[in-house]
Amino acid sequence: MMNFTPFVRLFLAVWLLGATAACNTPAPYVTVDGAVLGTTFHIKAQTKIPQREIYASVMDLDAELKHSMSIFDERSLLSRINRGETDSLDSHLTYNILAADSVSRISDGMYDITVKPLVEAWGFAGKAGVGTPNLDSLLPLVGYRKIRIEQGRLVKADPRMQLDFNSIGKGYMVDLIARMLEARGVDNYLVTIAGSGRCRGVNEQGGKWRIGIETPYDNNFSDADLQRIVAISDISYATSGNYRRFYYTADGRKIAHTINPVTGQSAVSRLLSATVFCNNAARADALGTMFMSLGPERAVEKARELEQEGVMAYFILATDKADGRQADQNPADYEIWCSPRLEKLLNN
Fold this sequence. Notes:
The protein is of the alpha+beta class. The chain has a domain of 177 residues: Roll (T-fold). The protein has an eight-stranded antiparallel beta sheet with strand order 1-2-5-6-9-12-13-14. Helix 2 packs antiparallel against helix 7 and helix 8 packs antiparallel against helix 9. The mean pLDDT is 91.
């Protein structure tokens, strides 16, 4: 048995206390920012994982998803499927086709990932528009019931049909990043990509995460110009709107990137933005687009139905005093509708 001098025993005791204190020190909150899927991402997480490791993991996911789902990368699997060069699906495409199909079914086709020919014709898929598209020739190429999956392959009713996952892809990426963080033991985090996000646990101050809902006036790219702040946690969310990607025709008509898959027309209505809270960001992303396509009355009706499934919605609508065309319109002049359950959270 070893005999230690009093000095050595004191040194060891101090060292053990320091080591124990170091082990019990809470992990710091770190911030990781960058670009994915053609837009920006932001992560705030309580973790001892180095920021560079988190960033590298996100970049790996970004490369993987672009290789799979991008309509802007001619070499992606989706681009090759859209050109008819292959019908083989990977896990990312399969998941999102099935997730999109569930939203298409509850909306009678008012949300549809086969809408790419229409989106492209109106000038929102990386190509210039063609003025007023020939909808009679394009609508036969659109319809979620015209595609199906058989043994890992995509079957199209018409080989000219094309898919576009931009209305669900950013939310899906949020889900993948959140899953990566949780797999590495992170309990408190916020992940955002453009208007989609997920939050879990508590923020750096120990409270709920604060999610901003933007004021939906034309060209609002400010993170600070907000209509409402929601304190919430353990939920995913996404905002869809027609105030960033749009143009005006010579006669003053607004053409926005949300396209009604049934009529083929740009889905511009009094509904200026739709923010959705639910259990995963991909679904929130798709539901937001669905609500914008439905228009105000049908969106409210569907939101009331979906509240039974845990979905909450926050709609901002135009009025005579605030139509969303000018930045200086009073935010209080917009009309607001939100799910009763969300309204209770906002009032607490």
